[in-house]
Each structure stands twice: as structure tokens, then as C-alpha cells.
């Protein structure tokens, strides 16, 4: 009788466990009556907020204070950045009434400082610039005491669109670099490091208060962060935010390193030493964190 060898089943390969978040990255869940009031207004007016779409860790703190960052031009982005939780695809909506509704919501919320951002709309000839301008203009008409920051996307060198985007009368104009130059192809495959610097330079040349943000923990080296600071200062940047990258889903880039708060503090000192006028630096810092303070930075 033929005897066959017994084949033992092989165990399934186990994926390596993701690094556990350190204690300094723990945040409280959003609760309280002020948060609930903002939640209700956002839902009633059918508004998109980057607080939700971007899974911002500061949503509880900011909404609890009665503020929010509104995302205009829909919630589907034409880009496929490997760090971002916003949905990617072909946007189906272009709501020309959105500027009015956003302005009305800001007025109802009695917001003292509003931050506006958007998805990329590369399929639109003007990149959505007219909606940007109208949202700022309508908000200023309904809430003349409200200061505004606009966190604008990459216009892909459509400088005419940029001129329209920044013409509404906002106090701060931000465009995020997101990462250092060597990681652009990995992090922002449809972006270009030099093109984003040029966008900031052109904004500054028109006399605006300029701002940008960089995520840390993607594998960048210290000297690359310093070089990015130098590049931004050379192109007219006033305000820089530095925060910890957090992986939104398993489909996105993994965190290469959790940066210690002491390192963030040293980067703040280094940025100021290199000529930046204001640096917001910490593990939980995001683009709109403490944004109301940035309107006082001298141009």
C-alpha cells in the first residue's frame, strides 16, 4: 500500500501590526451643546466640512468653541493623494448656490474667524475660482466683522484662476506644501513641489498674508524639513503649520515615525530663526488649528 506524506497546513501570513499611537496623540471625543449646535447647522445647510471629511483630531475642540472649517466645491476630489481621507473620483456636483449657503451658515453660527477649503477640481476650467471668490464676498457681506482664511488647492499653474481665487478680500491665504520635496511623488503624485512654491510666491507678490502646512512622520529627514522652511521663506511665506501625519485608513500611507512633541518644539524655534513670522508646531496641529491667531501676523 502506497504511503503518502502528510502535508501540514501552513499558517496564513500575519501582517505586521501597525505602530500604536503614543499617548500625546490621544484626543477627546467631540461632545457638548456647542458641538451639537454646530453639527445641526452643518447638517441643515448640507455643508461639507474638512473637519469630518479629513478626520481632523481637533474637531471636538474647534466645534466645541462654535467654529468649523468649511469645504466648498463638493466632497469628491479629482486628485489621489496618498495621505488624504477625502474621497477621490469624478465630481458630479457644481453647486453655484453653495457660496450663499456657506455665508448664511457662518452668519448663523456667529463665527468670528472662518476657514474655507476645498477639494481639487481639476476638471473645471477655472478650478472653481469663481465659487471661491463668491463664497468670500458673500460671507463678508453677511458678516463684515468675520475674518477669513482660504486654504486653496493647487491650481496647476493656472495663474488666472489663482488671481480670481485670492481676490475676495480674505485676510489669510493658505496653500499646503504637505511634505518635503523628496517625498512629493509618493505623497502628492499629481502635485509638484516647485509649482506649489510658485503659487505661494505669486500670492505674496499681490500683498497677501501667506500660510502653508507640512505633515511630519512620512519619512522626511530633519535637513529636508529645514530646506523646506528655507524654500518657503524665499518664496514669501509668513505662517507655517507643522503637524503629525496620521494614517486615515489601511489604504493610505503608513506612518513612518511618530514625532515627539519636543522635536516639534525645536522645529518651531528653527522656523522662526530661519525667517518665518509665525510657526504653529505640534503633533495635533492641523492647517486650521488656532487659525484665528494668524490674522494678526504682520504682512
Automatic annotation (TrEMBL):
Catalytic activity: [[Fe-S] cluster scaffold protein carrying a second [4Fe-4S](2+) cluster] + N(6)-octanoyl-L-lysyl-[protein] + 2 oxidized [2Fe-2S]-[ferredoxin] + 2 S-adenosyl-L-methionine + 4 H(+) = [[Fe-S] cluster scaffold protein] + N(6)-[(R)-dihydrolipoyl]-L-lysyl-[protein] + 4 Fe(3+) + 2 hydrogen sulfide + 2 5'-deoxyadenosine + 2 L-methionine + 2 reduced [2Fe-2S]-[ferredoxin]
Signal sequence range: none
UniProt entry tagged with the keyword Transferase: yes
Radical SAM core domain sequence ranges: 63-277
GO MF terms, alphabetically ordered: lipoate synthase activity
Pathway recorded for this protein: Protein modification; protein lipoylation via endogenous pathway; protein N(6)-(lipoyl)lysine from octanoyl-[acyl-carrier-protein]: step 2/2
Cofactor: [4Fe-4S] cluster
Keyword field: 4Fe-4S, Cytoplasm, Iron, Iron-sulfur, Metal-binding, S-adenosyl-L-methionine, Transferase
Binding site for [4Fe-4S] cluster 1: 51, 56, 62, 288
Cofactor: binding details: Binds 2 [4Fe-4S] clusters per subunit. One cluster is coordinated with 3 cysteines and an exchangeable S-adenosyl-L-methionine.
Binding site for [4Fe-4S] cluster 2: 77, 81, 84
Subcellular location as annotated: Cytoplasm
Keyword check for Transferase: yes
Gene3D superfamilies xrefs: Aldolase class I
Known EC number: 2.8.1.8
PANTHER family in UniProt: LIPOYL SYNTHASE (PTHR10949), LIPOYL SYNTHASE, MITOCHONDRIAL (PTHR10949:SF0)
Protein family according to the UniProt entry: Belongs to the radical SAM superfamily. Lipoyl synthase family.
Name of the protein this chain belongs to: Lipoyl synthase
Organism annotation: Hymenobacter bucti
Gene this protein is translated from: lipA
Amino acid at each position: 500500500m502506497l504511503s503518502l506524506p502528510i502535508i501540514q497546513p501552513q499558517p496564513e501570513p500575519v501582517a505586521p501590526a501597525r505602530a500604536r499611537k503614543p499617548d500625546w496623540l490621544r484626543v477627546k471625543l467631540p461632545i457638548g451643546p456647542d458641538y451639537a449646535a454646530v453639527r445641526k447647522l452643518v447638517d441643515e445647510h448640507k455643508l461639507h466640512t474638512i473637519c469630518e471629511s479629513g478626520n481632523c483630531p481637533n474637531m471636538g475642540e474647534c466645534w466645541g468653541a462654535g467654529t468649523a472649517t468649511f469645504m466648498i466645491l463638493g466632497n469628491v476630489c479629482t486628485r489621489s493623494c496618498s495621505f488624504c481621507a477625502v474621497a477621490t473620483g469624478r465630481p458630479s456636483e457644481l453647486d453655484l448656490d453653495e457660496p450663499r449657503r456657506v455665508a448664511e451658515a457662518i452668519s448663523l453660527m456667529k463665527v468670528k474667524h472662518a476657514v474655507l477649503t476645498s477639494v481639487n477640481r481639476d476638471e473645471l476650467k477655472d478650478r472653481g475660482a469663481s465659487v471661491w471668490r463668491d463664497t468670500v464676498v458673500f460671507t463678508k457681506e453677511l458678516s463684515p466683522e468675520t475674518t477669513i482664511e482660504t486654504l486653496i488647492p493647487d491650481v496647476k499653474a493656472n495663474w488666472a484662476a489663482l488671481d480670481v481665487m485670492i481676490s475676495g478680500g480674505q485676510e489669510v491665504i493658505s496653500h499646503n506644501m504637505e511634505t518635503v520635496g523628496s517625498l512629493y511623488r509618493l505623497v502628492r503624485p499629481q502635485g509638484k513641489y516647485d509649482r506649489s512654491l510658485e503659487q505661494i510666491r505669486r500670492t505674496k507678490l499681490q500683498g497677501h498674508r501667506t500660510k502653508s502646512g507640512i505633515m511630519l512622520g512620512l519619512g522626511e529627514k530633519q535637513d529636508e524639513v529645514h530646506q523646506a522652511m528655507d524654500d518657503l521663506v524665499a518664496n514669501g511665506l509668513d505662517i507655517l503649520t507643522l503637524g503629525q501625519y496620521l494614517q486615515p485608513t489601511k489604504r493610505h500611507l503608513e506612518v513612518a515615525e511618530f514625532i515627539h512633541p519636543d522635536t516639534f518644539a525645536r522645529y518651531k524655534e528653527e522656523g522662526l530663526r530661519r525667517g518665518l513670522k509665525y510657526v504653529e508646531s505640534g503633533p495635533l496641529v492641523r492647517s486650521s488649528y488656532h487659525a484665528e491667531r494668524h490674522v494678526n501676523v504682520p504682512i
